Amino acid sequence: MTELPPAVQDAVAATRARVAALHAELPANGLVVWTAGNVSERVPGADLFVIKPSGVSYAELAPELMVVCTLEGDKIADGTPDALSPSSDTAAHAYVYRHMAEVGGVVHTHSSYATAWSARREPIPCVLTMIADEFGGDIPIGPFALIGDDSIGRGIVDTLRATGGRAVLMANHGPFTVGPDGHAAVKAAVMVEEVARTVHLARELGPLVAIDAADIAALNDRYQNVYGQR
Fold this sequence. Notes:
By secondary structure, the protein is α+β, with helices and mostly antiparallel strands. 43% of the residues lie in helices and 13% in strands.
């Protein structure tokens, strides 16, 4: 770490602080249990990203414990103990960053309703304006893949490239979301769980009614380009 240019060291420190703070949003929004789930964010101006350490309690997470990795998923000498390993999903995050330059943040959770849809290997249909706003269409199912290499990352990238969305439900695993930064990816993770729950409840009451494709496009454009403060 000390061999990095001062500007990059400052960027790493700022990213570690953001990533540590963003992890607090996962339990606060009911998206994780125990030590499951992870947030990562690309370091501006460097081929590095910051991610949660594996198996560490959310209550213990602090900026100085956030692990710094190369885009190959290798931990650098970041000042953390050598025994502190990055998240078991690091290879997946790294693959996304290497193959999707527009992505600056990645989030994975096992949130209950979204993961239930993934267990059924069933996309969440675009039957709510909230889904159209945030995701621009159905939330797709990605392929089944084992943890340990970049298979999950390949599934995420292939699915998102095919759909153009910000979320994928990896089969029998759970949701992964992306965004231009970590904050946007966490927001998408919160929205995935919310719409997964609402659509499940709606389906219990009767048939779902899809939104017309032209209306989905109009809703998404308004939300992404007009809604909120600029």
